Amino acid sequence: MPDAPAGVSRALRAAPPDQLAEAADAAIRLALAACRTDVFIADYQISGLWPVLGGPLTDAGQQLAQRCFSSQQPVLDTGEDGRCRVFVPLSVWGERLGALLVELPRVPGADTVEQLGDVAGELAVALRAADRETDRYRRVRRRERLSMAAEMQWDLLPGRSVDQPGFLLAGQLEPAYTVGGDHFDWSLDGDRLTVTVLNGAGSGLPSALLTAVTVNAMRNARRSGGALVEQAELASDTIFYQHRGGRHVATLLLEVDVRAGRVRAVDAGSPHVLRLRGGAVTAITLEQQLPLGMFAETRYDVQEFDLVAGDRLFVVSDGVYAASPGGAEPYGQRAMARAMRATRLQPATEAVGTVMRELHAYHADADLRDDAVVVCLDWHGTHDQAG
């Protein structure tokens, strides 16, 4: 049997960025005698998976693809004619992009399914790299037109999830097609994971511009070797000297030692942090400091807290925690805790969606009145701590 992953890898390297699906299709057909292939990409709301090559899936096919996407495991479906559809997840460094469908003339063996997993991995890396060179895959992701503010926000994101041996991290923005200022960012550097969550001020394009300045100022400090305090202070000074105190951004900056579970935090009038440990939900109380950009040369202090193996942290913006549709009790006082407990058996990548769906239900499925961001961090601990 030809080496399918190697053949696909060569084909992808030779293909133009907008022709990756076609290149993979030809290589997979040649290597595995496949009857059909297609690439399905998750939309911005993760409400479904959408084709790059062919037509949409049937309801039954969509369920199979969603099962593969959610579980991050291959899903096989054998038809009456003996053909077998194999869905394998498209993901890179834990970021879930979608699913690869390969239809084979017969049920494959375990070695072929493993090869398809390697093929999907090669394709996912290529798709991630090509995203800056073509709009084709972004057009598949959007089910309606993005606002200008949302276009900027999604382009600014680091991704929507990252999976490493010590942790799993995921985030989601809503309303996906019109989000303005709420945002999240993260970066992994050795044992240090930096996570920032912004509760954007205002709405629309001015809010998105303010968020872009804030995120890039923090990135500038971080990439220059600056710790949390330097990141907060450079962003605060940048905002202040641009707006003279007229605009400011509530922000939480976290730095997690992913081996030891020690968390350092700068709470700049921030979004809310809640911890799920076992079945108990507890708010992490931090001393709130001034939002970024409120005053000139504001200085910030670091606070610390510890995680234990199996802890789950949720960071949510005011659009989640303080939501009170029709004057109801704010979502974060009770409903948020119920939603968090409901995620106990889900990975972080699924948990952010559960909390967002519960938030929409709390609004009786009406449009959200405010931007909402949910970030979920599962800390697995080291082998010694987990044992």
UniProtKB/TrEMBL annotation:
Source species, domain of life: Bacteria
GO molecular function, a single term: phosphatase activity
InterPro entries in the record: Bact_Sigma-Reg (IPR052016), PPM-type-like_dom_sf (IPR036457), PPM-type_phosphatase-like_dom (IPR001932)
Start and end residues of each PPM-type phosphatase domain: 164-379
Keywords: Hydrolase
Keyword hit for Hydrolase: yes
Keyword Ribosomal protein: no
PANTHER family listed in its UniProt record: STAGE II SPORULATION PROTEIN E (PTHR43156:SF2), STAGE II SPORULATION PROTEIN E-RELATED (PTHR43156)
Protein name: Serine phosphatase RsbU, regulator of sigma subunit
Organism: Micromonospora yangpuensis
Taxonomic lineage from the root: Bacteria, Bacillati, Actinomycetota, Actinomycetes, Micromonosporales
